[in-house]
């Protein structure tokens, strides 16, 4: 049995996350990741053939980790609880994973999405589609699933919690423990009144 590599993919990506969280996506270069991870440059190039491949892997690993819990929350019963859990997950995950949350406050375009390998861009599309389908499914569990109801769910489960996370990030302050409950309760209140399509 071979020895595990000292500079495995996760260690290199963890180094990239630290760099991106501290100084933005532009700071994530092959050489910088090697220095941050304490690895030879050859280790980075061996695992990522280009900077675009490195940035794609960094973004996709981060967003996959986040979406796993978000999608699970949208499947909870009853549907009203699912909305509150999904909203709360955004804040709870961000508080537990502050560096990765800072990465997600950017977007894939900031990580050079247009230059990613096609396989990586397809993974991104599939992940986004899963989230969109989960929100539409949740809207239909709550009612007819009209466009305005879907918009309300996006506001409750994405926009509101992300705004909370972003505000604390921009202030340089940790997300307080009570923020998760506040966001979940606000998401629940958004469901209290029906909305109609005009």
TrEMBL record:
<keyword id="KW-0238">DNA-binding</keyword>
<keyword id="KW-0804">Transcription</keyword>
<dbReference type="GO" id="GO:0000976">
    <property type="term" value="F:transcription cis-regulatory region binding"/>
</dbReference>
<feature type="domain" description="HTH tetR-type">
    <location>
        <begin position="6"/>
        <end position="66"/>
    </location>
</feature>
<feature type="DNA-binding region" description="H-T-H motif">
    <location>
        <begin position="29"/>
        <end position="48"/>
    </location>
</feature>
<dbReference type="Pfam" id="PF00440">
    <property type="entry name" value="TetR_N"/>
</dbReference>
<dbReference type="InterPro" id="IPR009057">
    <property type="entry name" value="Homeodomain-like_sf"/>
</dbReference>
<dbReference type="InterPro" id="IPR001647">
    <property type="entry name" value="HTH_TetR"/>
</dbReference>
<dbReference type="InterPro" id="IPR050109">
    <property type="entry name" value="HTH-type_TetR-like_transc_reg"/>
</dbReference>
<dbReference type="GO" id="GO:0003700">
    <property type="term" value="F:DNA-binding transcription factor activity"/>
</dbReference>
<protein>
    <submittedName>
        <fullName>AcrR family transcriptional regulator</fullName>
    </submittedName>
</protein>
<keyword id="KW-0805">Transcription regulation</keyword>
